[in-house]
TrEMBL record, chains A, B:
InterPro entries: CoA-bd, NAD(P)-bd_dom_sf, Rex_DNA-bd_C_dom, Tscrpt_rep_Rex, WH-like_DNA-bd_sf, WH_DNA-bd_sf. PANTHER family: REDOX-SENSING TRANSCRIPTIONAL REPRESSOR REX, REDOX-SENSING TRANSCRIPTIONAL REPRESSOR REX 1. Residues 86-187 form the CoA-binding domain. HAMAP family: Rex. This is Redox-sensing transcriptional repressor Rex. It comes from Bacteroides graminisolvens DSM 19988 = JCM 15093.
Amino acid sequence: MSNQPQKKDIAKVPEPTLRRLPWYLSNVKLLKQKGEQYVSSTQISKEINVDASQIAKDLSYVNISGRTRVGYEVDALIEVLEDFLGFTDMHKAFLFGVGSLGGALLRDSGLKHFGLEIVAAFDVNPNLIGTHINGIPIFHSSEFVNKMKEYDVHIGVLTVPIEIAQQITDTMIAGGIKAVWNFTPFRIRVPENIVVQNTSLYAHLAVMFNRLNFNEH
Amino acid sequence: MSNQPQKKDIAKVPEPTLRRLPWYLSNVKLLKQKGEQYVSSTQISKEINVDASQIAKDLSYVNISGRTRVGYEVDALIEVLEDFLGFTDMHKAFLFGVGSLGGALLRDSGLKHFGLEIVAAFDVNPNLIGTHINGIPIFHSSEFVNKMKEYDVHIGVLTVPIEIAQQITDTMIAGGIKAVWNFTPFRIRVPENIVVQNTSLYAHLAVMFNRLNFNEH
């Protein structure tokens, strides 16, 4: 018998579910602040306008069971959701490209509360190398492979200019990075076993501008 | 005859299309740097792994036509895409909640290159009120309604704690904000005519952690 989790225990949870679970978490945290001890999926449903049956289905991926009539225990649900979403483990990351957005992310200590700790950043700008932002050291990009040996890092945050987005991604992966959080508007290509999470603020802006424009005419 | 665009001219473009168009834009910008003058959807397709027919369909929303065999003119395509995506107009915005993420967004001058200018921020922290970040003034939240008269703003960026996310949203909308860029993990409720763009970094982290965990077992 092994203590390692087995493949079947780690479900590949559908992305829409993973995107909704943080809504439930923030909602249940609010209920806790209001002094509630139990919460039902019907209650959450009323607050956030998602079907109660969908909520119950999403929560079925999480290892918690509700009690008939009273629902889920608030404290237990928060703990289990934070753990399930990976917010209680600290995942170390390197950031590549300390430009405007990269620098902003280094200053956002809030990511730590959700399980992401950026431990070092890389750039080629001589004015940045050797300095710190928010306590995080900035190294020359050529030091990446060395630093991979020093830190236990699996995640790379990509905030470089689009011209070098693919090249830096390839370097990251060759160095052992397993997941790329891509903030560039560039569609990077990676091998099948590498995780990519695209967060293009500019694509979100484009959607918002289009909808706003549509409503105003 | 009126010069105003008519409702039918402003198509409600499908969200997946709006999310892909910035990929094409960044790709075509790269081709321009490499000295290319024409680009076909087949060429873009090879670079970014999206079907050429899908690309042609997406580009059909944009007012540009390709020429048989040579494809789209690179300069024209960049111009038309940037314009279509709203990146060439400057959209003014207020930011609500100058915490860690809010402060980081104020420091990200990159948003300006994609059509968003944060012109003022609001908070209740006495240490922040009256100061500037990256040249952007921070006012007390109670001044919001006054400042709406002073600035021509339609967009509100929401980076407050979840406990007050709904309340601040309601205040924004009552004051005349037409679109909310919601960075909180809280699912805000708004009237039908108000645009909401959710960008929860934490939900993206949850997806990335789950996929990474899945791959590692």
